[in-house]
Design brief:
Keywords: Bacterial flagellum biogenesis, Chaperone, Cytoplasm
Largest sheet: none
Number of domains: 1
Shape: rod-shaped
Structural class: mainly alpha
Distance between the termini: 74 Å
CATH architecture: Up-down Bundle
Helix content: over 70%
Subcellular location: Cytoplasm, Cytosol
InterPro entries: FliT (IPR008622)
Strand content: under 5%
Radius of gyration: 21 Å
Order of helices and strands: HHH
Organism: Paraburkholderia diazotrophica
Protein name: Flagellar protein FliT
CATH class: Mainly Alpha
Number of strands: 0
Amino acid sequence: MTIEVLTRVVQLTHEIHAAVSQRDWLRAETLVSERSPLLMSLKQEQPPHALALIREIQTLDEQISEAARVGLDTLTQENAKARQRIQSVRQYHTIGML
């Protein structure tokens, strides 16, 4: 049973990676919610052949985390630019009312 769960976790991790690469944050969140209980169900002791799968998950998780950080930075910058544009429009309208 454990290897089947681990195989499903690897599959979900690949799907999360793909969703994050496409900036599909809602899909990624849904997949993470599905994956989390499976990860929690794994026993600490794993057979040697499972270690390669676990390393694959860890590598993908690192890539996912980095992509998420970059995505957050991008969203933060876009938000700041949008707020600046809104402020500029407000100032324009305020001056126009004088």
